[in-house]
Amino acid sequence: MNWIFKRVRQFYRALTAEVSLDDEKYVMAHLNAREQKLFFALGIIDQRHSLNVAYTIERLIIVGKQGIDREFLIRCALLHDIGKADARLTIREKIFAVLVATFAPKKFADELELKGNRAIFIYRNHAGIGAQKLQKLGLFEEARVIARHHSLPRDDDPRELKLLRLADDEN
Question: Which of 112, 118, 131, 166 is most buried, judging by how many CB atoms fall within 10 Å of its CB?
Answer without folding.
Answer: 131
